[in-house]
């Protein structure tokens, strides 16, 4: 374990303007600011106030990226390689050079920042170190407004921040933090790792808008997950390196360079406020509760702050005069951070699979050794013959009245254990009452002979138990047969059942109201379905036919049907291949038995030449197996497609249903308002009805009107028109006749 305070460094961003207000002293470890005193206490005070802050090292304006990497990042990378966790974070106001330091400048290769240089360093190390095998995974998390986003998900083409997968925090019972939905991408080489960095930065850029100003208000955490192991060893070393580009640290409510008000000013970024709270709590020795949970960022960086990590902070400051307040704030923050002590430990763990493999190998070796020493091959269990022989030996030993009698089973733990276990059983069976300590003669190994009544009772019980057993056996047989039947049909069903059940209703050409919707809407629709009058059903049929999505639905249905047929064919092929394999196996077995029998009979000399028939059968089996595998693979692929199609279809159908409901409600509402003035049907509107929408309007309006006329309380009765079968039948006839006419009109007009 390594105890270490957080290392702090400062970097001053180059400025073109003169008049810098800072100085670097003490061989580059002290950063000083001199600020003219302001209008404190209402009068001009021309004294100057100076501030001094100590750092591990200060990188002045001319410092190169390489120098920074060598001093700051390389030691951290080395400790990560050794199995410790590491974090480097950059803190400072917007435009002070955080991104430049962590990721690098966009223009020159030499401006590469800590991330690309660290990656390069790590991969170079891998190629030189042949004693360890390493793997790297990368994650890239952006935290904006307390929400986490995965910058690396390759499936998401982000156009907004919200399009990126949302990352959430889970805490396990041991209070370890897990990030749900944050993808870990393996990077086999430097190029792949850089590609990931690029992908993340691009996503970050695309997602930014002038409104959200994500790059100044969000935190980005680029994490390198390293796993190293010595070849052949079961010990894994897993370490993480977080490279963190924090949000801009600027504050509001500044009161100028007066000094005493700095701590009162507020961060623009709330989560930086929580970061400061955590840092304050950690730097106060007496505090036991550290408020990590207050924000996502402090939760994610929990280990890096006061935990199992070697942590380094880079305070980025701007040298310009107008930024001096912020620069001083940044340095003050760094001084607090420097008080935090972390305890980093080696992240070693055992790989259970490897350990088991190694132990198995060891057992095998020991068995081999044992066989060599004893001259006999030992199996795990004693053979029946051995057990029988032991039983005899044990009996001789027990029957021997000589107190010095010995039971010698040889140096074999299996035999020794077996004898002990037998003896224990015997002792336990002996009545406990007759066994008292010191009185070993009381151990009766043969139980007392029971009385005739007892014998009868036992016999009766035996008969009863036999009956019970036979009942159970017959039940079991039935159950077994049922299972077998199910299994034998399962061949067909297995691959198709899920398809069949969900596609069965698709063979029905028409969309029967709610029948084939997904479970939740189906439930809703069932309820409504009860209220669906015949008239309304008819209206739905027409609505559906004219709906713009209907074509797509029909297409998808047709495609689904086609896929279903294909899947069925594939399923049959899979089945037949499996049956063939089974057949061939039987033949092979038969053949082998025949040959063995012939060998035993001495009819044929045992031949070294392989049997051509057997060869042929084997080849056939292989062929069928391949066929089975291929077809099964295809079937699986098709299943995915079918499931996808089903989802699409369900979504479309649900939308259609919803559109209809909305339209119906709307129509019913407007009828309710217009009916009083327009009590009679309006045939004059029909000539304009060549547009499908118009057809729908009129038909439905008419239906509703009719229902309205028949009812004193129209809206109520609309819902209940199913109660008037005669009305519905009339309506139906009317609608059909009308539709025919309209179709004709449509044709004429076209
Ligand atoms: P931040 O991430 O802190 O908001 P940036 O890293 O984006 O700030 O820096 C702001 C601008 O200053 C960028 O154009 C960057 O290239 C430039 N810059 C920052 N630090 C340096 C430096 N040390 N040398 C040269 N240019 C720098
Ligand atoms: Mg930045």
UniProtKB/TrEMBL annotation:
PROSITE patterns in UniProt: KINESIN_MOTOR_1, KINESIN_MOTOR_2
Main localization, broad class: cytoplasm
Signal peptide boundaries: none
GO term, biological process aspect, one: microtubule-based movement
Binding annotation for ATP: 92-99
GO CC list: microtubule
Stretches assigned to coiled coil: 567-594
Compartments reported by the entry: Cytoplasm, Cytoskeleton
An MF annotation (GO) of this entry: microtubule binding
Keywords tagged on the record: ATP-binding, Coiled coil, Cytoplasm, Cytoskeleton, Microtubule, Motor protein, Nucleotide-binding
Transmembrane segments: none
Boundaries of every Kinesin motor domain copy: 5-340
Biased composition (Polar residues): 487-508
Location of the region described as Disordered in the Swiss-Prot/TrEMBL record: 487-522
Family label: Belongs to the TRAFAC class myosin-kinesin ATPase superfamily. Kinesin family.
PANTHER family: CENTROMERE PROTEIN E (PTHR47968), KINESIN MOTOR DOMAIN-CONTAINING PROTEIN (PTHR47968:SF67)
The name this protein goes by in its record: Kinesin-like protein
UniProt source species: Denticeps clupeoides
Gene coding for it: KIF6
């Amino acid at each position: 374990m390594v105890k270490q305070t957080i290392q702090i460094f400062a970097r001053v961003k180059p400025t073109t303007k003169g008049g810098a207000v800072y100085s670097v002293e003490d061989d580059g470890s002290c950063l000083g600011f001199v600020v003219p005193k302001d209008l404190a206490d209402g009068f001009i005070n021309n004294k100057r106030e100076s501030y001094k802050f100590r750092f591990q090292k200060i990188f002045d304006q001319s410092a190169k990226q390489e120098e920074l990497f060598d001093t700051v990042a390389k030691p951290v990378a080395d400790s990560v390689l050794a199995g410790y966790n590491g974090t480097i974070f950059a803190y400072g106001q917007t435009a002070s050079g955080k991104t430049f330091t962590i990721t690098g400048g966009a223009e020159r290769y030499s401006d590469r920042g800590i991330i690309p240089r660290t990656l390069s360093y790590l991969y170079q190390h891998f190629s030189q170190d042949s004693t360890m095998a390493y793997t790297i995974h990368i994650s890239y998390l952006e935290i904006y407004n307390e929400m986490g986003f995965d910058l690396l998900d390759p499936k998401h083409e982000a156009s907004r921040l919200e399009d990126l997968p949302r990352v959430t925090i889970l805490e396990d019972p041991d209070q370890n933090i897990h990030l749900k939905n944050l993808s870990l991408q393996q990077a086999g080489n430097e190029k792949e790792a850089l590609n990931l960095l690029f992908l993340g930065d691009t996503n970050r850029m695309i997602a930014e808008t002038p409104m959200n100003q994500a790059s100044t208000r969000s935190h980005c955490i680029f994490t390198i997950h390293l796993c190293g192991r010595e070849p052949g060893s079961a010990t894994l070393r897993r370490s993480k390196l977080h490279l963190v580009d924090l949000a801009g640290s600027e504050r509001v409510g500044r009161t100028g360079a007066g000094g005493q008000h700095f701590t009162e000013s507020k961060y623009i970024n709330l989560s930086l406020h929580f970061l400061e709270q955590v840092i304050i709590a950690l730097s106060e020795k007496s505090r036991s509760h550290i408020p990590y949970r207050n924000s996502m960022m402090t939760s994610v960086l929990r280990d890096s702050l006061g935990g199992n990590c070697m942590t380094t902070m880079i305070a980025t400051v701007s040298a310009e005069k107008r930024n001096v307040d912020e620069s001083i704030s940044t340095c003050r923050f760094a001084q607090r951070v420097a008080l935090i002590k972390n305890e980093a430990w080696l992240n070693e763990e055992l790989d259970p699979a490897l350990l088991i493999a190694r132990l198995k190998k060891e057992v095998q070796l020991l068995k081999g050794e044992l066989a060599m020493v004893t001259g006999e091959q030992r199996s795990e269990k004693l053979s029946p013959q051995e057990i029988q022989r032991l039983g005899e030996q044990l009996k001789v030993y027990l029957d021997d009245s000589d107190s010095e009698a010995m039971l010698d089973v040889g140096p074999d733990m299996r035999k020794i254990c077996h004898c002990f276990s037998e003896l224990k059983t015997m002792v336990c069976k002996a009545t406990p009452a007759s066994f008292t300590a010191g009185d070993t003669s009381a151990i009766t190994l043969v139980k007392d002979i029971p009385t005739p009544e007892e014998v009868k009772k036992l016999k009766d019980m035996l008969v009863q138990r036999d009956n019970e057993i036979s009942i159970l056996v017959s039940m079991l047989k039935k159950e077994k047969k049922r299972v077998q039947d199910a299994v034998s049909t399962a061949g067909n069903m297995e691959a198709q059942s899920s398809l069949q059940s969900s596609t069965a209703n698709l063979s029905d050409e028409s969309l029967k109201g709610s029948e084939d919707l997904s479970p939740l809407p189906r439930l809703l629709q069932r309820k409504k379905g009860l209220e669906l009058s015949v008239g309304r059903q008819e209206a739905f049929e027409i609505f559906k036919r004219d709906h713009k999505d209907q074509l797509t639905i029909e297409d998808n249905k047709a495609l689904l049907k086609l896929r279903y047929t294909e899947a069925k064919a594939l399923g049959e092929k899979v089945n037949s291949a499996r049956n063939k394999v089974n057949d061939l196996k039987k033949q092979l077995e038969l053949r082998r038995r025949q040959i063995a029998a012939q060998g035993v009979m001495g009819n044929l000399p045992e031949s070294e030449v392989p049997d051509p028939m057997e060869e042929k059968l084997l080849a056939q089996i292989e062929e069928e197996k391949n066929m089975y595998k291929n077809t099964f693979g295809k079937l699986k692929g098709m299943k995915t497609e079918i499931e996808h199609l089903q989802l699409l279809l369900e979504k479309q159908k649900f939308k259609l249903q919803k559109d209809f409901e909305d339209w119906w409600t709307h129509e019913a509402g407007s009828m309710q308002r217009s009916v009083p003035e327009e009590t009679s049907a309006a045939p004059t509107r029909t000539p304009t009805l060549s547009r499908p929408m118009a057809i729908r309007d009129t038909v439905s309006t008419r239906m509703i009107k009719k229902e309205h006329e028949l009812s004193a309380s129209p809206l109520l009765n609309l819902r209940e028109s199913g109660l008037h079968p005669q009305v519905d039948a009339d309506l139906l006839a009317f609608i059909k006749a009308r539709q025919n006419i309209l179709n004709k009109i449509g044709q004429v007009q076209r």
